[in-house]
Amino acid sequence: MSDEQERETLIEFPCRFPIKVMGDSHPELMEAVESCVKEHVDDPDDAVIQQRASSGGRFVGITVTFTATSQLQLDRLYRALGQCNRVRMIL
After folding, report:
1. Which residues of 24-44 are buried (b: 16+ CB within 10 A; e: fewer)?
2. What pLDDT was estimated at residue 1?
C-alpha cells in the first residue's frame, strides 16, 4: 500500500482527536510538535496543545487535540512526529 492511499478506519471524520507525545524535556520537543501540527493540521489555530512535565522533570508529555479530517492526515502526522529526535513515544 502506498503511503498516499487512504486506508480503512473505524473513526468517523471529521472528529476531535487527541495525540499524546512523550519526549525529552527540551524546548526543541515543543518546537518540533508545533511545527508538525502547522504542517499537517488543516486549521492549526483550532489545535489545543497541552504540556505536562514528569515528576522528575526529565520528560514531558504533550497532548495535541485537533479536528482530524482523514486517516491519511493522521498517518502523516504520526509519521512526522515519529521522525522528531526528542520524541520517545506517540499514542
Report:
1. ebeeebbebbeebbeebbeee
2. 46
